[in-house]
Amino acid sequence: MSAVEAASPGGSGHDPAAPGGQITQPMSPSAAQTEVALAQAQDLKAWWAEVEAGKAPVERFQLFPAYPGMAPTWGFFGEAPVQGQTVPVMGDVGDYFFDRPRVPESGQTRAAAWMAEQVEEFALHYWLRVQAWALPLPYPELGHVPPPPYLRSLSWCNPAELPELSGTGSVQRYYKLRADGRIGEFPPGDRRTIVDLRELGTIYEWITLDSRLFDFDMTLSVGGDDLLSLVVPTGTTVHAVLNADLIVNQRQPRPGTRGAFGVGFGLMRDPPGGVIAFGPDKVQPGLGLEVLRVLDSGEVRLRAVMIMARPEKLLNLSLDPLDWGLQAADLLTLGAARRFTEPIAEALGQLPMRGIGFDPLFGSIRLLNLATGDRAASELCISKEHFEREILAKDAVTRRQALLGTRKTWLQIPNWLDRSAIPEWVARGETVDPSEGESV
Protein backbone atom coordinates (compact mmCIF):
# COMPACT_ATOMS: atom_id res chain seq x y z
CA MET A 1 0.00 0.00 0.00
CA SER A 2 1.35 3.41 -0.93
CA ALA A 3 1.80 6.36 1.40
CA VAL A 4 -1.18 8.05 -0.24
CA GLU A 5 -3.38 5.02 0.41
CA ALA A 6 -2.17 4.99 4.01
CA ALA A 7 -4.06 8.23 4.56
CA SER A 8 -7.39 6.49 3.94
CA PRO A 9 -9.66 5.56 6.89
CA GLY A 10 -8.13 2.10 7.03
CA GLY A 11 -4.52 3.26 6.76
CA SER A 12 -2.10 4.89 9.14
CA GLY A 13 -3.19 8.40 8.24
CA HIS A 14 0.47 9.44 8.01
CA ASP A 15 2.37 10.27 4.86
CA PRO A 16 6.07 9.83 5.73
CA ALA A 17 7.02 11.96 2.73
CA ALA A 18 5.16 14.94 4.21
CA PRO A 19 6.90 17.49 6.46
CA GLY A 20 6.32 17.46 10.20
CA GLY A 21 8.09 14.21 10.97
CA GLN A 22 11.10 15.88 12.56
CA ILE A 23 12.11 14.60 15.99
CA THR A 24 11.49 17.40 18.48
CA GLN A 25 13.46 15.86 21.37
CA PRO A 26 16.07 13.11 21.75
CA MET A 27 14.78 9.61 21.06
CA SER A 28 14.40 7.36 24.09
CA PRO A 29 15.54 4.67 23.51
CA SER A 30 17.91 6.15 20.94
CA ALA A 31 18.16 5.17 17.28
CA ALA A 32 21.37 3.25 18.01
CA GLN A 33 19.70 1.35 20.85
CA THR A 34 16.78 0.58 18.54
CA GLU A 35 19.09 -0.90 15.90
CA VAL A 36 20.83 -3.06 18.53
CA ALA A 37 17.51 -4.34 19.91
CA LEU A 38 16.33 -5.15 16.38
CA ALA A 39 19.47 -7.16 15.58
CA GLN A 40 19.12 -9.06 18.86
CA ALA A 41 15.46 -9.84 18.19
CA GLN A 42 16.32 -11.11 14.70
CA ASP A 43 18.86 -13.49 16.24
CA LEU A 44 16.28 -14.69 18.77
CA LYS A 45 13.75 -15.35 16.01
CA ALA A 46 16.29 -17.40 14.05
CA TRP A 47 17.14 -19.36 17.21
CA TRP A 48 13.45 -19.94 17.97
CA ALA A 49 12.95 -21.39 14.48
CA GLU A 50 15.71 -23.88 15.33
CA VAL A 51 13.97 -24.73 18.62
CA GLU A 52 10.63 -25.37 16.93
CA ALA A 53 12.37 -27.52 14.34
CA GLY A 54 13.90 -29.63 17.14
CA LYS A 55 17.45 -28.51 16.30
CA ALA A 56 18.13 -26.45 19.44
CA PRO A 57 17.48 -27.81 22.95
CA VAL A 58 15.50 -26.07 25.69
CA GLU A 59 14.34 -27.14 29.15
CA ARG A 60 10.58 -27.24 28.78
CA PHE A 61 7.99 -27.25 31.63
CA GLN A 62 4.26 -26.72 32.00
CA LEU A 63 3.16 -23.37 33.41
CA PHE A 64 -0.54 -24.16 33.78
CA PRO A 65 -2.84 -26.86 32.41
CA ALA A 66 -5.22 -26.61 29.51
CA TYR A 67 -8.80 -25.47 29.72
CA PRO A 68 -11.52 -26.28 27.15
CA GLY A 69 -10.44 -25.55 23.61
CA MET A 70 -6.83 -24.93 24.59
CA ALA A 71 -3.56 -26.78 25.03
CA PRO A 72 -1.34 -26.54 28.12
CA THR A 73 0.73 -23.36 28.27
CA TRP A 74 4.39 -24.11 28.75
CA GLY A 75 7.57 -22.30 29.60
CA PHE A 76 11.21 -22.95 28.86
CA PHE A 77 14.78 -22.12 29.82
CA GLY A 78 17.52 -22.14 27.20
CA GLU A 79 20.63 -20.49 25.81
CA ALA A 80 20.42 -18.45 22.62
CA PRO A 81 23.21 -17.10 20.40
CA VAL A 82 22.69 -13.33 20.27
CA GLN A 83 25.16 -11.04 18.51
CA GLY A 84 28.10 -13.36 19.05
CA GLN A 85 27.29 -14.17 22.68
CA THR A 86 25.43 -16.99 24.40
CA VAL A 87 22.57 -15.47 26.41
CA PRO A 88 20.55 -17.37 29.06
CA VAL A 89 16.90 -16.91 28.09
CA MET A 90 13.48 -17.96 29.28
CA GLY A 91 10.06 -17.78 27.69
CA ASP A 92 6.46 -18.90 27.48
CA VAL A 93 4.41 -20.39 24.65
CA GLY A 94 0.63 -20.60 24.39
CA ASP A 95 -1.61 -22.03 21.67
CA TYR A 96 -5.28 -21.03 21.90
CA PHE A 97 -8.50 -21.38 19.93
CA PHE A 98 -9.53 -18.09 18.29
CA ASP A 99 -12.37 -18.74 15.81
CA ARG A 100 -13.70 -21.11 13.17
CA PRO A 101 -16.22 -20.81 10.29
CA ARG A 102 -19.54 -22.56 10.85
CA VAL A 103 -19.94 -24.28 7.50
CA PRO A 104 -20.58 -27.89 6.43
CA GLU A 105 -17.58 -30.03 5.57
CA SER A 106 -18.23 -29.57 1.85
CA GLY A 107 -17.62 -25.81 2.22
CA GLN A 108 -14.51 -25.95 4.38
CA THR A 109 -11.98 -25.42 1.60
CA ARG A 110 -13.67 -22.28 0.36
CA ALA A 111 -14.29 -21.04 3.91
CA ALA A 112 -10.64 -21.59 4.85
CA ALA A 113 -9.46 -19.54 1.86
CA TRP A 114 -11.86 -16.73 2.77
CA MET A 115 -10.80 -16.90 6.43
CA ALA A 116 -7.12 -16.61 5.50
CA GLU A 117 -7.82 -13.37 3.61
CA GLN A 118 -9.76 -12.00 6.59
CA VAL A 119 -7.14 -12.97 9.15
CA GLU A 120 -4.30 -11.48 7.12
CA GLU A 121 -6.06 -8.12 6.93
CA PHE A 122 -7.02 -8.13 10.60
CA ALA A 123 -3.68 -9.34 11.97
CA LEU A 124 -1.40 -7.13 9.88
CA HIS A 125 -3.54 -4.02 9.53
CA TYR A 126 -5.73 -3.58 12.63
CA TRP A 127 -4.75 -6.00 15.39
CA LEU A 128 -2.29 -3.69 17.19
CA ARG A 129 -4.92 -0.95 17.25
CA VAL A 130 -7.57 -2.92 19.15
CA GLN A 131 -5.77 -4.68 21.99
CA ALA A 132 -7.10 -2.43 24.78
CA TRP A 133 -10.63 -2.00 26.08
CA ALA A 134 -12.49 -0.51 29.03
CA LEU A 135 -13.90 -2.77 31.74
CA PRO A 136 -17.54 -2.20 32.78
CA LEU A 137 -18.12 0.37 35.52
CA PRO A 138 -20.28 -0.61 38.51
CA TYR A 139 -21.94 2.82 38.49
CA PRO A 140 -22.08 4.14 34.94
CA GLU A 141 -21.91 7.87 34.34
CA LEU A 142 -25.40 8.99 33.27
CA GLY A 143 -24.38 12.22 31.58
CA HIS A 144 -24.91 14.51 34.58
CA VAL A 145 -23.28 17.92 34.50
CA PRO A 146 -20.72 18.01 37.34
CA PRO A 147 -22.03 20.23 40.15
CA PRO A 148 -19.98 23.22 41.32
CA PRO A 149 -17.48 22.40 44.07
CA TYR A 150 -19.47 24.11 46.84
CA LEU A 151 -22.54 21.90 46.07
CA ARG A 152 -20.67 18.65 45.42
CA SER A 153 -21.23 17.32 48.95
CA LEU A 154 -25.02 17.65 48.47
CA SER A 155 -25.19 15.99 45.05
CA TRP A 156 -26.88 12.60 44.55
CA CYS A 157 -25.27 12.13 41.13
CA ASN A 158 -22.95 9.18 40.76
CA PRO A 159 -19.36 10.46 40.72
CA ALA A 160 -17.68 10.41 37.33
CA GLU A 161 -15.14 7.62 37.02
CA LEU A 162 -12.59 6.85 34.38
CA PRO A 163 -13.00 3.27 33.17
CA GLU A 164 -10.44 0.71 34.21
CA LEU A 165 -8.52 -0.47 31.18
CA SER A 166 -7.56 -4.03 30.31
CA GLY A 167 -5.36 -5.55 27.64
CA THR A 168 -2.52 -3.70 25.93
CA GLY A 169 -2.56 -0.16 24.60
CA SER A 170 0.04 0.78 21.98
CA VAL A 171 1.16 3.94 20.24
CA GLN A 172 3.73 4.26 17.46
CA ARG A 173 6.58 6.70 18.11
CA TYR A 174 9.44 6.70 15.62
CA TYR A 175 10.17 5.31 12.17
CA LYS A 176 13.06 4.78 9.80
CA LEU A 177 12.36 4.99 6.08
CA ARG A 178 13.74 2.37 3.71
CA ALA A 179 14.23 4.77 0.81
CA ASP A 180 16.72 7.18 2.39
CA GLY A 181 17.24 5.98 5.97
CA ARG A 182 15.60 9.09 7.39
CA ILE A 183 14.41 8.75 10.98
CA GLY A 184 11.28 10.63 11.97
CA GLU A 185 8.56 10.87 14.57
CA PHE A 186 4.90 10.06 13.97
CA PRO A 187 2.62 13.10 14.43
CA PRO A 188 0.65 13.02 17.71
CA GLY A 189 -2.68 12.64 15.92
CA ASP A 190 -1.55 9.45 14.16
CA ARG A 191 0.21 7.63 16.96
CA ARG A 192 -2.70 5.34 17.77
CA THR A 193 -3.26 4.57 14.07
CA ILE A 194 -0.46 2.03 13.86
CA VAL A 195 0.73 1.46 10.30
CA ASP A 196 -0.27 -1.51 8.20
CA LEU A 197 2.54 -3.93 9.04
CA ARG A 198 2.85 -4.88 5.37
CA GLU A 199 4.41 -1.43 4.90
CA LEU A 200 7.40 -2.67 6.88
CA GLY A 201 9.90 -3.63 4.22
CA THR A 202 8.40 -1.30 1.60
CA ILE A 203 7.97 2.14 3.19
CA TYR A 204 9.49 1.65 6.64
CA GLU A 205 12.70 -0.08 7.68
CA TRP A 206 11.39 -0.16 11.25
CA ILE A 207 8.94 1.51 13.58
CA THR A 208 8.90 1.68 17.36
CA LEU A 209 5.96 1.14 19.68
CA ASP A 210 5.28 2.14 23.26
CA SER A 211 2.95 -0.50 24.71
CA ARG A 212 1.28 -0.40 28.11
CA LEU A 213 0.37 -3.71 29.77
CA PHE A 214 -2.59 -2.68 31.90
CA ASP A 215 -2.94 -5.94 33.84
CA PHE A 216 0.68 -6.83 34.59
CA ASP A 217 2.28 -6.71 38.03
CA MET A 218 4.07 -9.23 40.19
CA THR A 219 3.29 -10.06 43.82
CA LEU A 220 5.90 -12.05 45.69
CA SER A 221 4.71 -13.43 49.05
CA VAL A 222 7.25 -14.43 51.69
CA GLY A 223 6.41 -16.47 54.77
CA GLY A 224 3.11 -18.03 53.65
CA ASP A 225 -0.42 -16.65 54.03
CA ASP A 226 0.83 -13.37 52.59
CA LEU A 227 2.76 -12.65 55.78
CA LEU A 228 5.02 -10.40 53.74
CA SER A 229 4.28 -9.34 50.18
CA LEU A 230 6.34 -7.41 47.67
CA VAL A 231 4.43 -5.92 44.74
CA VAL A 232 6.73 -5.29 41.79
CA PRO A 233 5.17 -2.48 39.68
CA THR A 234 5.88 -3.86 36.21
CA GLY A 235 2.74 -2.47 34.56
CA THR A 236 4.78 0.18 32.81
CA THR A 237 5.38 1.29 29.24
CA VAL A 238 7.29 -1.27 27.18
CA HIS A 239 9.38 -0.11 24.23
CA ALA A 240 9.40 -2.36 21.15
CA VAL A 241 10.78 -2.28 17.62
CA LEU A 242 9.13 -3.91 14.58
CA ASN A 243 10.46 -4.58 11.09
CA ALA A 244 9.73 -6.89 8.17
CA ASP A 245 12.05 -9.66 9.41
CA LEU A 246 10.06 -10.02 12.63
CA ILE A 247 6.55 -9.82 11.15
CA VAL A 248 4.87 -13.14 10.24
CA ASN A 249 3.15 -13.07 6.83
CA GLN A 250 3.18 -16.57 5.35
CA ARG A 251 0.97 -18.58 2.99
CA GLN A 252 1.05 -22.38 3.31
CA PRO A 253 3.92 -22.32 5.85
CA ARG A 254 3.47 -26.04 6.56
CA PRO A 255 1.10 -28.89 5.67
CA GLY A 256 -2.32 -28.38 7.22
CA THR A 257 -1.91 -24.61 7.65
CA ARG A 258 -3.45 -22.24 5.11
CA GLY A 259 -1.62 -19.16 6.41
CA ALA A 260 0.10 -17.56 9.40
CA PHE A 261 -0.09 -13.82 10.06
CA GLY A 262 0.99 -11.77 12.99
CA VAL A 263 3.18 -9.39 14.91
CA GLY A 264 6.83 -9.83 15.88
CA PHE A 265 8.60 -7.26 18.02
CA GLY A 266 11.93 -6.82 19.73
CA LEU A 267 12.05 -5.51 23.29
CA MET A 268 14.14 -2.48 24.24
CA ARG A 269 15.41 -1.79 27.73
CA ASP A 270 14.40 1.51 29.31
CA PRO A 271 17.30 3.73 30.35
CA PRO A 272 18.79 2.26 33.55
CA GLY A 273 17.73 3.74 36.85
CA GLY A 274 15.30 3.17 39.66
CA VAL A 275 15.09 0.52 42.33
CA ILE A 276 13.27 -2.06 40.15
CA ALA A 277 15.82 -3.94 38.05
CA PHE A 278 13.53 -6.36 36.21
CA GLY A 279 10.23 -6.00 34.37
CA PRO A 280 8.83 -5.79 30.84
CA ASP A 281 10.48 -2.37 30.43
CA LYS A 282 13.87 -3.71 31.61
CA VAL A 283 14.21 -6.72 29.28
CA GLN A 284 16.77 -6.91 26.47
CA PRO A 285 17.30 -8.93 24.42
CA GLY A 286 13.70 -9.98 23.99
CA LEU A 287 11.29 -11.13 21.30
CA GLY A 288 7.51 -11.39 21.20
CA LEU A 289 5.51 -13.25 18.53
CA GLU A 290 1.71 -12.99 18.32
CA VAL A 291 0.46 -15.05 15.38
CA LEU A 292 -2.95 -16.11 14.05
CA ARG A 293 -2.75 -19.38 12.10
CA VAL A 294 -5.52 -20.46 9.73
CA LEU A 295 -5.74 -24.25 9.42
CA ASP A 296 -7.01 -26.06 6.34
CA SER A 297 -10.29 -26.66 8.19
CA GLY A 298 -10.75 -22.89 8.52
CA GLU A 299 -10.10 -22.94 12.27
CA VAL A 300 -8.05 -19.99 13.52
CA ARG A 301 -5.49 -20.60 16.28
CA LEU A 302 -3.66 -17.97 18.30
CA ARG A 303 -0.02 -18.71 19.09
CA ALA A 304 1.77 -16.36 21.50
CA VAL A 305 5.51 -16.67 22.20
CA MET A 306 7.61 -14.51 24.49
CA ILE A 307 11.40 -14.87 24.80
CA MET A 308 13.38 -12.76 27.24
CA ALA A 309 16.75 -12.69 28.93
CA ARG A 310 16.76 -14.33 32.35
CA PRO A 311 16.98 -11.67 35.10
CA GLU A 312 20.26 -11.12 36.90
CA LYS A 313 18.54 -9.22 39.71
CA LEU A 314 15.08 -8.06 40.76
CA LEU A 315 16.00 -5.03 42.86
CA ASN A 316 18.93 -2.66 42.46
CA LEU A 317 19.59 -0.97 45.80
CA SER A 318 22.44 1.47 45.86
CA LEU A 319 25.31 1.37 48.31
CA ASP A 320 25.39 5.17 48.20
CA PRO A 321 23.22 6.94 50.83
CA LEU A 322 22.53 9.74 48.34
CA ASP A 323 20.49 7.27 46.31
CA TRP A 324 18.40 5.93 49.18
CA GLY A 325 15.91 8.78 49.24
CA LEU A 326 15.38 8.62 45.48
CA GLN A 327 14.97 4.84 45.53
CA ALA A 328 12.56 5.00 48.47
CA ALA A 329 10.38 7.49 46.58
CA ASP A 330 10.48 5.25 43.52
CA LEU A 331 9.50 2.15 45.51
CA LEU A 332 6.84 3.73 47.73
CA THR A 333 5.06 5.34 44.76
CA LEU A 334 5.28 2.14 42.66
CA GLY A 335 7.34 3.97 40.07
CA ALA A 336 5.06 7.02 39.75
CA ALA A 337 7.77 9.38 41.05
CA ARG A 338 10.34 8.14 38.55
CA ARG A 339 9.87 10.98 36.07
CA PHE A 340 10.79 13.44 38.86
CA THR A 341 13.64 11.43 40.38
CA GLU A 342 15.34 10.37 37.13
CA PRO A 343 16.76 13.87 36.30
CA ILE A 344 18.20 14.07 39.82
CA ALA A 345 19.62 10.56 39.53
CA GLU A 346 21.21 11.42 36.18
CA ALA A 347 22.88 14.47 37.69
CA LEU A 348 24.14 12.47 40.66
CA GLY A 349 25.33 9.76 38.26
CA GLN A 350 28.08 12.07 37.05
CA LEU A 351 29.78 11.82 40.41
CA PRO A 352 32.57 9.23 40.87
CA MET A 353 31.99 5.85 42.56
CA ARG A 354 28.30 5.81 41.82
CA GLY A 355 26.07 3.27 40.08
CA ILE A 356 27.16 0.33 42.27
CA GLY A 357 24.12 -1.60 43.47
CA PHE A 358 23.06 -4.89 44.97
CA ASP A 359 19.97 -7.07 45.03
CA PRO A 360 19.05 -8.12 48.58
CA LEU A 361 16.31 -10.49 47.37
CA PHE A 362 18.19 -12.73 44.93
CA GLY A 363 21.30 -12.45 47.09
CA SER A 364 19.38 -13.67 50.15
CA ILE A 365 17.86 -16.53 48.14
CA ARG A 366 21.32 -17.73 47.10
CA LEU A 367 22.63 -17.57 50.67
CA LEU A 368 19.57 -19.37 52.06
CA ASN A 369 19.89 -22.24 49.59
CA LEU A 370 23.62 -22.45 50.23
CA ALA A 371 22.95 -22.73 53.96
CA THR A 372 20.17 -25.36 53.57
CA GLY A 373 21.75 -27.48 50.86
CA ASP A 374 19.13 -26.26 48.35
CA ARG A 375 16.24 -27.52 50.53
CA ALA A 376 14.74 -24.01 50.52
CA ALA A 377 14.35 -24.33 46.76
CA SER A 378 13.22 -27.95 46.59
CA GLU A 379 10.82 -27.90 49.56
CA LEU A 380 9.75 -24.26 49.97
CA CYS A 381 9.96 -22.92 46.37
CA ILE A 382 12.43 -20.26 47.54
CA SER A 383 14.59 -19.96 44.46
CA LYS A 384 15.37 -17.65 41.59
CA GLU A 385 14.06 -20.28 39.16
CA HIS A 386 10.70 -20.40 40.96
CA PHE A 387 10.40 -16.61 40.67
CA GLU A 388 11.28 -16.81 36.98
CA ARG A 389 8.49 -19.35 36.45
CA GLU A 390 6.09 -17.03 38.24
CA ILE A 391 7.12 -14.23 35.86
CA LEU A 392 6.52 -16.46 32.85
CA ALA A 393 3.13 -17.63 34.13
CA LYS A 394 2.03 -14.06 34.75
CA ASP A 395 3.25 -12.96 31.32
CA ALA A 396 1.44 -15.85 29.61
CA VAL A 397 -1.85 -15.16 31.41
CA THR A 398 -1.68 -11.42 30.75
CA ARG A 399 -0.84 -11.88 27.07
CA ARG A 400 -3.56 -14.52 26.64
CA GLN A 401 -6.16 -12.21 28.17
CA ALA A 402 -5.10 -9.27 26.03
CA LEU A 403 -4.99 -11.20 22.75
CA LEU A 404 -8.12 -13.31 23.22
CA GLY A 405 -9.92 -10.15 24.25
CA THR A 406 -9.45 -8.85 20.70
CA ARG A 407 -11.93 -11.52 19.52
CA LYS A 408 -14.69 -9.14 20.65
CA THR A 409 -13.58 -6.73 17.94
CA TRP A 410 -12.70 -9.42 15.38
CA LEU A 411 -16.23 -10.85 15.52
CA GLN A 412 -17.93 -7.46 15.13
CA ILE A 413 -16.71 -6.81 11.58
CA PRO A 414 -18.44 -8.93 8.89
CA ASN A 415 -15.75 -8.33 6.27
CA TRP A 416 -12.33 -6.97 7.19
CA LEU A 417 -11.50 -6.35 3.52
CA ASP A 418 -14.43 -3.92 3.15
CA ARG A 419 -12.97 -0.57 4.22
CA SER A 420 -16.46 0.96 4.43
CA ALA A 421 -17.39 -1.61 7.08
CA ILE A 422 -14.51 -0.68 9.41
CA PRO A 423 -15.72 1.61 12.24
CA GLU A 424 -13.76 4.80 12.76
CA TRP A 425 -12.73 3.80 16.27
CA VAL A 426 -11.07 0.67 14.84
CA ALA A 427 -9.48 2.45 11.89
CA ARG A 428 -8.06 5.18 14.12
CA GLY A 429 -7.09 2.84 16.97
CA GLU A 430 -9.23 4.76 19.46
CA THR A 431 -10.22 1.77 21.57
CA VAL A 432 -9.29 3.57 24.78
CA ASP A 433 -10.39 6.97 26.04
CA PRO A 434 -8.35 9.62 24.12
CA SER A 435 -8.38 11.76 27.29
CA GLU A 436 -6.01 9.19 28.80
CA GLY A 437 -3.27 10.66 26.60
CA GLU A 438 -0.69 8.95 24.42
CA SER A 439 1.22 7.10 27.11
CA VAL A 440 -1.45 4.38 27.29
Structure description:
The model is unreliable at 1-10, 221-229, 350-355 and 433-440 (pLDDT under 50). The protein contains nine helices and 16 strands. 25% of the residues lie in helices and 27% in strands. It is α+β, with helices and mostly antiparallel strands and 440 residues long. It starts with 30 loop residues before the first helix and ends in a 13-residue tail after the last helix. Helix 3 (321-332) packs antiparallel against helix 4 (338-348).
Percent of residues in helices comes to: 25-40%
- The total count of helices amounts to 9
The count of strands amounts to 16
Please state the overall shape, judged from the principal axes of the Cα atoms.
globular
- Main sheet? 12 strands, antiparallel
What Rg, in angstroms, do the CA atoms define?
23 Å
Low-confidence stretches: 1-10, 221-229, 350-355, 433-440
Order of helical and strand elements? HEEEHEEEEEEEEEEEEHHEHHHHH
The helix/strand class is: alpha+beta
Percent of residues in β-strands: 25-35%
Task: Report the span from N to C terminus.
Answer: 28 Å
Mean pLDDT across every amino acid position: 77
List the keywords:
disordered N terminus; 440 residues; 12-stranded antiparallel sheet; alpha+beta; 9 helices; two-stranded antiparallel ribbon
How would you briefly describe this protein structure?
The protein has 9 helices and 16 strands.
